[in-house]
Amino acid sequence: MDQTYNPTPSAPVIRLMVLETDKPHPDTHSERGTFGKIVHEHFATAGRAHKPPVGVETDQVFVVSEQGGRIPSLEEFDSFDGLLITGSLYDAHGDDEWILQLLELLKTLWIKRADFRFLGVCFGHQLLARLLGGSIGPAPSQDWELGHCRIALTPVGQRLFRTRGDDNHVYLHQMHQDQVKIAPTAASAGPDMLPQDTEIAVWGHTDHTPVQGLYIPNRLFTTQAHLAFDEDMVKRQIQIRVEKGAISDLEHADRAAETADLEHDGVEVAKAILRLFMDDEEGQ
Question: What's the CATH number where 87 sits?
Answer without folding.
Answer: 3.40.50
